[in-house]
Amino acid sequence: MNSPDTPICSAKGCRTAAVWVLAWNNPKLHTPERRKTWLACEEHREHLSQFLGVRGFLKDVVVLAEWEEPEAPPTGS
């Protein structure tokens, strides 16, 4: 069972924990640098990627753990 703060897959009706982030934008609505996100479990990653891809919206697919990592502060002085 997922905890209330576990990211859930964006596929309709899916309640599985997300593993992937699909970054996308609709060029008719969003500026080029804007990124919207969908979350995907292993089972739905390909389907959601294809849905966005055929529309030309998909920009990147990243493992959720990597997407959430904060940027490291600069080192040195």
TrEMBL record:
Superkingdom of origin: Bacteria
This protein's name: Acetone carboxylase
